[in-house]
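Re-run with default settings, no changes from the original entry. Doing this only to confirm the output is reproducible before filing.
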Amino acid sequence: MKKLLTLALSLMFAGSVFSAEYPDISITELKTAIAEKKVTVIDVNGATSYSKGHVPTALNFAEVKDSLASKLPADKGALVVAYCGGPSCSAYTRAANAAKELGYTNVKHLSAGISGWLQAGEATEK
C-alpha cells in the first residue's frame, strides 16, 4: 500500500512539473510586451489559422520552424511566447521546446490561445 501511495504521489508530481514547464503569460501582459517590442510571439495553429488572424507580430511556426534560430533575438534571455488554439491545446509545446532547445530561458505560454485572445475582444493581424 505504501509503495502504491508513493507511486501515485510521484506520478502526480511528475504531471504537475510537466504542465508547469512553461509559465503562463496573461493576455494583458502579452499586449504590454508587444507594445514595448519586448517579445517574440510564435503561433502554432498552422498556416490556415494563421492566415485567418493571429496575435499581432506573431510568427507562423509552420513557416519558420526550420529557420527559427534566425527569427529569434540574439539575447537568449529575451521573452518568447508560444500559443496555439486555447487552454486544452498542447501544440504550443513544439515551438516552446524548439526555443528552449536553442537556449532561450524565458519561454512562456499564452494558455488562452487564439480563442481566448478573440474572446477578450483583442485585434488580430492577417
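The longest strand covers residues 39-43. The CA atoms of residues 54 and 124 lie 5 Å apart.
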